[in-house]
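General statements about sequence and structure are easier to judge against a single worked case. When preparing material for the folding task, we compiled for one chain both its residues and its backbone structure tokens. The amino acid sequence and the backbone structure tokens for this protein are reproduced below:
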Amino acid sequence: HVQVDYEQAREMRSAVAKLLVLADGGKLASQVEGIQYHKHDYQQWAVVANIQTSIDQRGIAYEHFTLDGPVALLPSGTGYALVWTVPAGQVDSILNWDDATFLSELQAHFGDMAGQFVSCGKRAGFPLTLKYASPGIAQRTVLIGNASQTLHPVAGQGFNLGLRDAWELASELVRPANFVVDVGSSRLLSAFASKRQIDREGGKFFTNTLAKLFTVDSPSLQVACGLGLSILDQLSPIKRFVARRMIFGASG
């Protein structure tokens, strides 16, 4: 068994189970023997805020690639949730701008494809890193989602990858052949880790490549990347192929 000691309502309590699933983002994995994290600092921060535009959102998400990193608008309510990638050295000044300056600078940086930016909510920032656990399993312990891997937010793949982690783990636990197997056994956890390896490695490679590729200050490379995105947007079969793998993983 595995035992977790925790505090709730100022009382120390314990929980005992055959399997511990860590899905907390990675804060607790340092307490698990045998798990180590590998990190790469992108020297970028994500500034997030809720944004209202002159045109109500229509269920379309936008992502604009710039030399500073991607800027994304994700539908939220009648407006958008903004994820603005900025160089680490500029984040403090950007977070301290007044609303009018923030909206004006964002408009100049993003353009008007979503309309005019008219208001914004409270802003916050967090550093962007690639962080992944090795291995992603330990004795009676398995890591999923951001506890297993934290990716650059480009293309929004971290959430999808976490959902696939949870789905694959659940599928492994309820597999008829495993009904008589100890759910915390090394055999079951090793089978789960093996099935997730290709998808996880592919997700890390894809997002890390995108994050670096579009920030290379090379006019010819920028033109090539722009042409590639334009061609992808016009060829529906290829676009569907890419979208399915971004949603459903390596198996598509």
